Amino acid sequence: MPSLVVPSPLGALTLTSDGSSITNIDFGKHAKTMASSDKVLMKCRKELQEYFDGKRSSFSATVSPEDTAFQKKVWREMLCIPYGSTISYKELSKRAGKPNAIRAAASACGKNPIVILVPCHRITASNGGIGGYSGGVEKKRWLLRHERETQA
Fold first, then answer.
1. Out of 44, 80, 109, 120, which one is annotated catalytic?
2. H/E element holding 75?
3. pLDDT tens across 33-48, in order?
4. Active site residue 120
5. Assigned CATH topology for domain 69-150
6. Where are the domains positioned within the chain?
7. Distance between CA atoms of 85 and 95, rounded to whole angstroms?
8. Could you give the CA distance from residue 87 to residue 60 in angstroms, rounded to a whole number?
């Protein structure tokens, strides 16, 4: 699958596409080939740059994460969380239709293959703690602060 490494304030991001949608965004340089002609990757790169510049609060790139039906439902619910807002893992599990599946919702967050576009960084602990993040808690803090500071 075509991949592209793009710079960000959080370090390199590797974007992967299936040619029609984004299938993965990961922290670090993992691309074996550069796919500068892939329109999906170019659009996503542009939108991420606008996001980091504080000029974009939502994304139009199509995403296609692959996993279980419940994980996909959790990820769809994350897409509904407004820019600059947060909800708890408990609230996320309720919105995904399984109010007692808090750990499963948290696990789905941790397995989210499309960081930033599917905003798992907007999910926090019910006790007010920041919770975990696949890219590291410092990156999560940065993303939440960035969204608060650039919110229109």
1. 120
2. helix 69-78
3. 565 688 999 999 999 9
4. yes
5. Arc Repressor Mutant, subunit A (1.10.10)
6. 3-52, 69-150
7. 15
8. 22
